[in-house]
């Protein structure tokens, strides 16, 4: 076995690899850029080597710098994680030439599966079900239309070297096929330097389901069941689960066997993932093979008990797999929510800055018999940089059933405290409560269909509102009693805490009565409904773990005048707890309106001004580009919402701005 492994990556996946290596008694080497000098993976590793400036193309993906770090530390093997150099054939080949073990597949397998046209041809030859389509090179738009007519509409026009949704168009008729071919070709040339295009049948009501394979150097290959990855936004996975709620055992077996056949056909070793599109009738079609560890691998580990990173290392060291296909089962259900540094209330724009609070739920067994796991690469006080991927953690839960795993995830998301940046915890919580998701009735279009106008927070139903009202009334009583115990008050001025209160939240008001005892409170509503509330919450705590009506409830708590700011299940609420008289008077107060910002262009996210496209005094039209802001490898063009004249420009290209900083003013 290896004595020392270098991890050619950063963030949570570098930390994840270090954990398995440490368990195996293997020393680890981290690499880091200037931006990551204080990163968690650097602190966790036995050694760390500086490899350059923050941009990845000057540090993490410069092969010569990684090779120099290997030489300087004497590492015998390299784990590439995912992203960066993980699927670069030239990196695997450079390691092979230097006599360093690549913890991944052989370079020819990476090359074969890295090209979408080649991989589909190989899949077809290996007996893998592929989408009907034309895998050859397409000369021009006329040929594209002819092929599309033969396949049958709708068709998907795709760049061979594509990824991340670039160079991809759906055509529903001849005109769209002609136009889409040229657009895809132009986009592919600009993005990848490769304008080769192929066409295939577009699968309607598609699910994205992938098979995890594991192969050794002795001809053994097994599949470790599937993962459902259909909850995606802009081709970016948000929530994954294992197994899929849609597959039956026969389909699972057929997909698994075909995935292994493909792996063997290309001489694959190590962990890999074969991705499929599955239609509403459980017909499945090969999409692509990822020749690396997947981001969502923890859900497979939770239902199989197999450490995939450890297996990758053992396979790279030449060991045979210690199990056969018949040994692989499915134990329970696992969920994963990806925590992204992006603001769901601002159309998921990237958010950067310091984590003023970062308190994940406690990992390990839960009181209800489940498991919580959090794979992360950050810590409280750490900085979320603009230079890298916005994912900062993967929150995973396990339960004996899908319903139990979802409930564990709901509680874990409510317990997860993150402050200082925008993040998508509320959105993940909203998905967990969505009827379609709970039923398992999901496709890759789920987010686009259910949140067409973006995410504006969750509106809680009546039952949940009453649970929150009962909880906050009981919490307010605790705070009121504490206030009566302030020393130094005048004699004969003892304050009595009443039993009658009105709780106002989400536009509704609930008159209620509290009967308290040593163990908790019984809250009775005007309609006669009673809820028992028990908790050890004390004023000042930012997290309240309660039992309401015999069921657990976790609230994130902030203080506002005469009440609380409560965040729960994707909702962000101002909850006012008042006496009946205070409530009547509050109804007479005028509503405070938000400031008018219609004459300002505000920066929608923390980022760098790349370009100012207009000048002071210039008349602009609706839809005209005003400025370009960059953050986390994304450029965002800010456009005029209406016709107007630029009065003042407050910043220039190169300026670093915060959220809502004023970029320019209009007359």
Automatic annotation (TrEMBL):
Check the record and name the InterPro entries matching this protein: ATP-grasp, BC-like_N, Biotin_BS, Biotin_carboxylase_complex, Biotin_carboxylation_dom, Biotin_COase_C, Biotin_lipoyl, CPAse_ATP-bd
User: What are the recorded GO MF terms, alphabetically?
Assistant: ATP binding; metal ion binding; propionyl-CoA carboxylase activity
- Which reaction does this enzyme catalyse, per its entry? propanoyl-CoA + hydrogencarbonate + ATP = (S)-methylmalonyl-CoA + ADP + phosphate + H(+)
Which ranges carry the Biotin carboxylation domain?
1-452
Q: Which Pfam families match?
A: Biotin_carb_C, Biotin_carb_N, Biotin_lipoyl, CPSase_L_D2, PCC_BT
What cofactors does the UniProt entry give for this protein? biotin
Q: Pathway, per Swiss-Prot/TrEMBL?
A: Metabolic intermediate metabolism; propanoyl-CoA degradation; succinyl-CoA from propanoyl-CoA: step 1/3
Q: What class of enzyme is it?
A: ligase
Kindly give the CDD domains that the UniProt entry links to this protein: biotinyl_domain
Which Gene3D superfamilies does its entry note? 2.40.50.100, 3.30.700.30, ATP-grasp fold, B domain
Domain (ATP-grasp): give its ranges.
Answer: 120-317
> What keywords appear on the UniProt entry?
ATP-binding, Biotin, Ligase, Lipid degradation, Lipid metabolism, Magnesium, Manganese, Metal-binding, Nucleotide-binding
Its Gene Ontology biological processes?
Answer: lipid catabolic process
Q: EC number(s) of the enzyme?
A: 6.4.1.3
NCBIfam families hit by this protein = PRK08591.1
Q: What is this protein called?
A: propionyl-CoA carboxylase
Organism, scientific name: Rhodobacter viridis
